[in-house]
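Researcher: Here's the sequence for the chain we discussed earlier.
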Amino acid sequence: MGPVVITGGFGRVGGLVRSALLAEHRLRVVDRVAGTPLPGEESMVADLAEPGVAERALAGASGLVHLAGDPRPHAKWEEVYRANVALTRRVLDAAAGQGVPRVVLASTVHAMGEYNRPEHRPVDPAWEPRPCCAYGLSKVITENLGRLHAELTGASVVCLRLGSTGYPLDEARYLGMWLSGRDVGALLLAALTAGPGWSVHFGMSANTRRHWDLASARKLGYEPRDDSEPYAETAGPPTVMICRIFDGADNPPAQA
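Model: Thanks. This is the structure I predict for it:
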């Protein structure tokens, strides 16, 4: 079995999941920025947007976990298109050419952000996407690129709409969408076991205040173990406007 390639592997989420993935897979970490590999990892410092790089990165791979991208809800469309849509298309084309059988794409809860209202809860990942910002829209498009990839190649493609992971849990508005470091590793391991075809799932911990339906993720074999509730007493009010994923008291107006 070849290695699982993890793009953006030295980034925020990659740093949380690599040790968990290494327990079951060889890893090849690909990132534009150099990092410190864990024992047993291969690493490749390169820009996947450059011609031929994605093909080299995926040569002989048994799986792909695509984390590279721009995760900023306030980013401009041109920025997220280049970093999320165009790059994902390039990486998927390379995966098809290299015959990679398993793909996991990091999506975001922002793809369904307009449902983050009391009248819609709990939110079902099977509903029609309703992104709340350009970032969320870019991930809706990458999910559909993944679906096309699965249909054209027969590969397994799992899209994970990740909640808040790798950030301090210091604001109460994130308690319902928190995803712990331990749980995100377990989620990715479960996604790498999926059979052929395309699917999309929410990725959150077992939060008491969660209103995102995890039933489909549990069918992958994901069993979240952590809960954000111990942080509830110290989590404070919102400090800055994020995007329309929050409204009212949970999203203060931007300061002039």
